[in-house]
Amino acid sequence: MSKAKTKPFDPSEYLDDSESIAAYMTEALESGDPAFVADALGVVARARGMTEVAREAGVSRESLYRALSADGNPEFATVLRVVQALGLRLCVAPANREPAA
After folding, report:
1. Closest CA to 45 of 33, 32, 28
2. SS3 letters across the chain
3. What's the rounded Cα separation, in Å, for the pair 67 and 61?
4. What is the CB neighbour count within 10 angstroms for residue 41?
5. Which of 91, 2, 78 is nearest to 41 (CA)?
6. What are the tens digits of pLDDT across the range 36-52?
């Protein structure tokens, strides 16, 4: 009996336009999990080309890989530079919360 060969799922392979990237990052931000947000930003950077994103953000490729991994903890300034390098912007909207009684 032969085992089926599989490869790990890489979401960066499906982030090929601005709309899918925006939707992916919105979901990551809505998770409220900083590690997931950093990892998602790394996935988007890989989809766009990590070397180019690192250059435009003014950081080394290696440090960007480290910062934007699931175990990374990037400084907010780094996040903002990467977001800008990716041609994205962060937006704030009111949370849909019920008024206090």
Report:
1. 28
2. CCCCCCCCCCHHHHCCCHHHHHHHHHHHHHHCCHHHHHHHHHHHHHHHCHHHHHHHHCCCHHHHHHHCCCCCCCCHHHHHHHHHHCCCCCCCCCCCCCCCC
3. 10
4. 26
5. 78
6. 999 999 999 999 999 99
Q: Which residue has the tokens 């530079």?
A: 81
With beta carbons less than 8 A apart as the criterion, state whether 11 and 24 touch: yes
Q: Tell the burial category of 6 from Cβ atoms under 10 Å away from its Cβ (0-12, 13-18, 19+).
A: exposed
Residues 6+ apart with CB under 8 A from 8: none
pLDDT digits (tens, 9 = 90+) for 66-94: 999 888 899 999 999 999 999 999 888 88
